[in-house]
Design a protein that fits this description.
The protein is of the alpha/beta class. It has helices spanning about 5-10, 15-40, 55-60, 75-80, 85-95, 125-140, 160-170, 190-195, 200-205, 220-235, 260-270, 275-285, 290-310, 330; strands at about 70, 115-120, 145-150, 175-180, 185, 190, 210-215, 240-245. It has a single domain, classed as 3-Layer(aba) Sandwich (Rossmann fold).
């Protein structure tokens, strides 16, 4: 029996249901977001997570409430699994005042301090030093809190990547580095820009325990993540996981996708993580066809409600335009009356 088959065989029915529910939630949220973008309800950049649902679900479902998460700009799935309300996340994509970032962040900057989800970062690799800072704080406070730092393969040639891995290794910081390797940094294949395309080996160079896993299999992702988290909480320093996965849509909604062969895309679609896990659940009698249909119906109702909430929410008032924006006066503690034209 394959490892993933053994894992699901030992899982409780309710646990299997929850994992499938989370993956379907991500998929339908992203499909609804794409629909709303096409209708002109969402503006700006929109990076969809379709195809990569097993990674967010398998990792974040194992975190404690006190653990931190920093992510990158393809972070809708991470936010949903962390427990952020789908209506408020959709409202953020709409730019509404009821959004999780008050309508000011949009798709790439979801934030929820209460859930210790401290942002999606549009600056490639920019979240990695932040993750080290959060982990250092947890280490100094003597807690077992872990910081999950999520990034794509496009970040691995950035200086912040190497600086962060080195710092985490030297100080044995409680960080789980998670690379979602979907093989493309925007429209460029990783093999065209990286002399070493097996990303996890880069972490090994810094003395960090690192592994590669099948990011299309939620059971394998959970098993590897569980081992990594236990290692970190024991004080054994950072851990690095590379999840091999694939986005079924373009880099963003503006991507015409001229750089990928249709045959390649169709091959990866046959590995759909939701279909694969559903079939596993049926095979091991964890769920029935009716129960899976009920999950889909529940999610559909939730997403219809999320869109309705976003549509009915107000735009941020115009007089709040400069709220939460740093200025020299704010930074220095001056009042506007103190400033002169000079």
């Amino acid at each position: 029996m394959a490892v993933s088959e053994k894992v699901i065989a030992g899982m409780a029915d309710a646990q299997v249901r929850d994992l499938l529910h989370q993956m379907i939630r991500i998929r339908r949220f992203e499909e609804k977001a794409a629909e709303m973008y096409a209708r002109g309800r969402i503006h700006g950049f929109l990076h969809l997570y379709i195809g990569q649902e097993a990674v967010a679900t398998g990792t974040i479902s194992l975190l404690r409430d006190t653990d931190y998460i920093v992510s990158f700009y393809r972070e809708h799935g991470h936010a949903l699994v962390r427990g952020m309300d789908s209506g408020r996340v959709m409202a953020e994509l709409f730019g509404r005042s009821t959004g999780v970032s008050g309508g000011r962040g949009g798709s790439m900057h979801l934030f929820d301090a209460k859930r210790r989800f401290l942002g999606g970062y549009a600056n490639v690799g920019g979240q990695m030093p932040v993750a080290c800072g959060l982990a250092l704080a947890a280490q100094r406070q003597g807690t077992e809190d872990v910081t999950l730092c999520v990034f794509g393969d496009g970040a691995v040639n950035e200086g912040a990547f190497h600086e962060s891995l080195n710092l985490a290794a030297v100080w044995k910081l409680p960080v789980l580095f998670l690379c979602e390797n979907n093989f493309y940094g925007m429209g460029t294949a990783i093999k065209r820009v990286s002399a070493l395309s097996e990303v996890y080996k880069r972490a090994e160079a810094y003395g960090i325990r690192a592994e590669q896993m099948n990011g299309m299999d939620v059971t394998e992702v959970r098993e590897r993540t569980d081992a990594a988290l236990k290692s970190i909480r024991r004080g054994e320093g950072p851990y690095f996981l590379e999840a091999l996965t694939y986005r079924f849509r373009g880099h963003s909604m503006a991507d015409p996708e001229f750089y990928r062969d249709k045959e390649e895309i169709e091959h990866w679609r046959t590995l759909d993580p939701i279909v694969a896990f559903s079939e596993q659940a049926l095979r091991h009698e964890k769920l029935t066809e009716t129960e899976i249909a009920n999950i889909r119906n529940e999610v559909e109702e939730e997403m219809e409600s999320a869109v309705r909430f976003a549509e009915e929410s107000a735009d941020p008032p115009l007089d709040t335009l400069f709220d939460k924006v740093y200025s020299k006066a704010d930074y220095m503690g001056w009042s506007t009356e103190d400033e002169t034209d000079a």
